[in-house]
Amino acid sequence: MELRSLIETLDIGPVPERALGVRISDLTDDSRTVLPGSLFVARSGVRDDGRKYIEQAVRDGAVAVLTDEEGAKLVDEKHALVLIASDVALAAAQMAERFNGNPTEKLKLVGVTGTNGKTTVVHLVHGIMNAAGVRTGMIGTVEIDDGREIAQAEMTTPPAIELSRTFANMVDAGCKAAVMEASSHALDQRRVAGLAFDIGVFTTLGTDHMDYHADRDAYLKAKQRLFGLLKEDGVAIVNADDPACEEMITGCKARIVRTSMEKGDWTARVLARQIDGVRVRIEGPLGAIEVSLPLMGDHNAMNLLQAVAVAHELGVDSESIVAALAHPELPRGRLQRVPGTGDVSVFVDFAHTPDALERTLHEMRRSMQESGHRGNLWIVFGCGGNKDKTKRPVMGKIAGELADRIVITSDNPRTEAPEAIVREVFEGVEPARRTDVAQIP
User: Fold this and answer.
1) Residue 83 confidence (pLDDT)
2) CB burial class (10 A; 0-12, 13-18, 19+) of residue 304?
3) Per-residue pLDDT tens over the stretch 66-79
4) Domains (range + CATH), the chain
5) Choosing a second label site near 302 at 20 to 30 A (CA), which of 92, 96, 244, 396?
């Protein structure tokens, strides 16, 4: 592709007319993948500074470098063209879309943000749409489905260049829609800045990533960016029961659809709670339906409600939705029951934030009581290393208050000492409950 086609109308400094005909063979922000003819994107990041690798990229064949004023000083213009942008991340995202043939213009694009529930909503939507005959791609924490194959995801929301390439694969594979998780990191780092969403979904706002965001307000504002990326005729589907809901959609110009367990455009009422899941009555624009979901907890009833609302907005009728949910697509590790454990019911859950842990334990206790399940509620959990340390004692306190027996153990300590993390979690447990706690290691 010629450079002129990549940068026309973008906010990039002056480029000599003679350079506009330069052919670009690839876009990359990873100097290790530079090929002859590549355009290399160099900007400062959270963990590294891509500008350090400009010289290497040019040596390996990059014919142009997109960077900022500081990065431009490192480019030898005798060997590569320098493109200067005030917002390198935005320019790179826009260029990636153009380079890949503007794939999201050919897809109905759904973005889901929130502290908890993103993965479950995305998988439910993906399952409903494909079961209804609408080929739909998926990008999330657990898996990526580009229409050709399903691969394990490395991060919740990939970088902009990789993201656009994945969307292009979806289009080539015949996908008509795509549903993706939009993490606070991705929104803050503008990985999705070049996209225009048809539907944005807000699940919940809790406390997470406080090691990255300065405070709750910064965290909320990062999530809020999704709703500024909606098309004029787009739809914001929001959890009206969350205290942050109205704040989240401040300034949103798209149509607002509220989901609620009490009163909203869409409502859900839990009819039965069992260890094996919930039975839910959903009422909304498509009328009323009743479905059983093999995931326990009222929060999963809300996840289901939002997925149904998304499918409806994408044109799926109620009969197709009910048929799809007879065999729902569920993500791994979200209150996933472990088979073959005899009289003991064992579940694996991703709850890694204080509010998620509290809600999960509450819902498990409630389901045990309503289903007549006798026995103790055990929890085996840990906190990741090199992440938000403030939540460790909080999660210990919650476990001590809501579980009968507690096992605190290691959960990907990264570069921290596992024993130190376990100790910090243990310190949050009330002294009177500490005899019910086992620490491993």
Assistant:
1) 98
2) buried
3) 999 999 999 999 99
4) 3-98 (3.40.1390.10), 100-325 (3.40.1190.10), 336-439 (3.90.190.20)
5) 396
